[in-house]
Design goal:
The complex is a heterodimer of chains A (168) and B (427). Chain A has 7 helices and 4 strands. By secondary structure, chain A is an alpha+beta fold. Helices cover 43% and strands 12% of the residues of chain B. In chain B, the strands form 2 sheets. In chain B, strands 6-5-9-7-8 form a 5-stranded mixed β-sheet, covered by helices on one side. In chain B, strands 3-2-1-4 form a 4-stranded parallel β-sheet, sandwiched between helices. The longest helix of chain B is centred in the last third of the chain and has 26 residues, at 391-416. Chain B is globular. Classes of the chains: A alpha+beta (168), B alpha/beta (427). At the A-B interface, helix 2, helix 4, helix 5 and helix 6 of A face helix 5, helix 7, strand 3, strand 5 and strand 9 of B.
Chain lengths: 168, 427
């Protein structure tokens, strides 16, 4: 994260503490998780105690304090998705990745996460990887989905579509 | 087929939401007209007369909310667009942001002008990564065309808009938790009063409006409050985007007059039930509201009619369940969600949501006890009206309603020590 980026974020707010969430997102995007060094830097830059930074980090679901699982696979298990088979989808992902929900694969590439409503119930059951939404994902789709995800990671961090992407 | 207002542009399959397309279809004319013809007070009056009510969940009249903001020109004021869309079953704001971002920006401009604000934030849930990027792009486009920034269209009115991503917390949809989060803190709801209109962001006067609410504003300005209030009922005006999901043939967003009958919404627009099954239950306004059943199908979807039927219009998220659905399992999923999302500030909510989830899970797994039904009602009673924010009520009210309409089903689980339903959802 360059000084210029930090300044651009700070310029948006009259109180610098407001820059905490955006800067945490940027730090996590760079390294894949929030390092202790990054947290110390932010606490210094924003004039916050380490506790004020860590209590925020641990309050929100999206922040990670450990390395591994560069790509998170989010499977919604809330009501609309659950009505249409989300539990089966979760189970197929667990089988295909060889891990339980909440865990990271041994090669450190993927983390499987059960998440709450992603606001895409019209295409339930929904899976989100990075910025992309996929749905409806049927249990039969999952093995191939994971295979493509692996192939994609072998080539680059970002690549071709895994499945036809969801509309809008 | 009734006229679409907010989603009319989206009916054109080629519409990509770029500023040229927005301008070619009447975009940014409402702000130009307003800056020429209205003083802020007259815009507030116009919106008040339209009867527009907040589309986020509470249904508070928008013009009235704006009217609470102090008029002192020396006081900094903030407009915050609530784009934290997280209520289970609701997916309209995501669509409005992704597919027509300029309509939202124009709405934010109008609201900012009305309350005299120069800095507006769009608090967008962290998972909407693509949506936040689209907003950043649209803001650049609007600024390049002179609709944002200093001295907009030579009027002397200036405003900047900044998207601000959340990071995964349902509670941040509650407006005071949202403001705490925007201040760089944990999303813990604040005690009210004071209300945000007088002490909001950085304790300064702040209006928090939902995405869909703001998207209505350009249309109200251009076509007039009388036109707007001619749609719907005297107390619930305009259209509403209903997000329909669950065991339905054509799930999706449907913009319809706000008082459309539930039967028409489900069976005509959303295509009726899947696989020829029978309708069992409908959650009409997001997972936080009480459930309704077949007997309520002729209820209209406006705020008053749904309240009269014993539920709420909430966020417009309509979750439809067929006869194969186990209502104990539904309760377990809903309670698990509120347990996970309780911020933990208030004992009744922190403990109550945990107890609800635990008790419902054991009933579903065939380990329920006879006393569990009374226990559930007792927990719910202790959760309602006793906490800083309504998350606790939102967790308790649905469970009470499941017991009210489907009590036999809960008893059957306990007597038979098993769930009588086939695990169609794989659970």
């Amino acid at each position: 994260m360059t000084e210029e980026t930090i300044q651009q974020v700070l310029a948006r707010y009259s109180h610098r503490r407001s820059a905490l969430l955006p800067l945490l997102h940027l730090c996590q995007q760079e390294v894949g998780y929030l390092t202790e060094e990054a947290l110390r830097l932010l606490s210094k830059r924003l004039g916050l105690s380490p506790t004020q930074v860590v209590e925020v980090v641990t309050f929100y679901d999206m922040f990670r304090l450990k390395p591994g699982g560069q790509r998170e696979i989010w499977v919604c298990h809330n009501l609309s998705c659950s009505l249409l088979g989300a539990e089966k989808v979760v189970r197929r992902f667990e089988e295909a990745l060889g891990i339980g929900a909440g865990e990271t694969t041994h090669d450190g590439l993927f983390r499987l996460k059960r998440v709450e409503c992603l606001a895409a119930c019209g295409i339930a059951p929904v899976v989100q990887v990075g910025a992309e939404y996929y749905g409806p994902v049927s249990p039969q789709d999952v093995a191939q989905f994971v295979e493509r995800l692996r192939a994609q990671s072998a080539v680059s961090n970002q690549g071709s579509a895994l499945l036809p992407k969801a509309d809008g | 087929m009734s006229e679409k207002i907010l989603t009319k542009r989206l009916e054109n399959p080629g519409y990509g939401g770029m500023i040229e397309e927005y301008l070619a279809t009447g975009g940014y004319q409402a702000i130009a007209k307003t800056l020429k013809e209205h003083a802020p007070a007259s815009l507030i009056e116009l919106v008040r007369r339209s009867g527009l009510r907040g589309r986020g969940g509470a249904g508070f009249p928008t013009g009235v909310k704006w009217g609470f903001v102090p008029k002192d020109p020396g006081l900094t004021k903030y407009l915050v667009c609530n784009a934290d869309e997280s209520e289970p079953g609701t997916f309209k704001d995501r669509d409005l942001i992704m597919r027509d971002p300029h309509q939202l920006l124009e709405g934010i401009l109008l609201a900012s002008y009305a309350i005299g604000c120069q800095t507006a934030y769009i608090y967008i849930r962290g998972e909407f990564i693509a949506g936040a990027a689209i907003l950043e792009r649209a803001i650049k486009e609007a600024a390049a065309h002179g609709f944002l920034g200093k001295d907009i269209l030579g009027s002397g009115f200036s405003v900047e808009i900044y998207p601000h991503r959340g990071a995964g917390a349902y509670i941040c949809g509650e407006e005071t938790a949202l403001l705490e989060s925007l201040e760089g803190k944990r999303g813990l709801p604040r005690l009210k009063p004071p209300f945000p209109a007088t002490a909001g962001l950085y304790r300064l006067p702040t209006v928090v409006n939902n995405v869909e609410t703001l998207c209505n504003l350009p249309h109200i300005v251009l076509r007039g409050p009388e036109w707007f209030s001619s749609i719907g009922t005297p107390k619930s005006t305009g259209t509403r985007i209903f997000s329909v999901s669950g065991h339905i043939r054509r799930p999706g967003n449907y913009e319809l007059p706000i008082d459309v009958p539930m039967r028409e919404l489900i069976f005509e627009h959303a295509g009726g039930m899947r696989d020829g099954r029978r309708l069992k239950a409908v959650i009409p306004g997001g997972s936080s509201v009480p459930v309704l059943t077949e007997q309520h199908l002729d209820t209209r979807m406006d705020f008053e009619s749904l309240a009269k039927a014993g539920s709420m219009a909430g966020s417009g998220g309509v979750i439809v369940m067929d006869e194969s659905t186990c209502m104990v399992r539904t309760g377990e999923v809903v309670a698990r969600f509120y347990h996970h999302e309780s911020c933990g500030q208030c004992t009744q909510c922190r403990e109550g949501t945990a107890w609800l989830h635990k008790t419902l899970r054991r009933i579903e797994e065939g380990r329920g006890r006879k006393a569990d039904l009374d226990l559930l009602l007792d927990i719910c009673e202790n959760m309602k009206g006793k906490t800083i924010c309504p998350l606790s009520d939102a967790a308790a009210m649905p469970i009470e309603s499941y017991l009210k309409y489907f009590g036999d089903e809960f008893e059957q689980h306990i007597v038979e020590h098993a769930c009588p339903f086939a695990p169609t959802d794989g659970s």
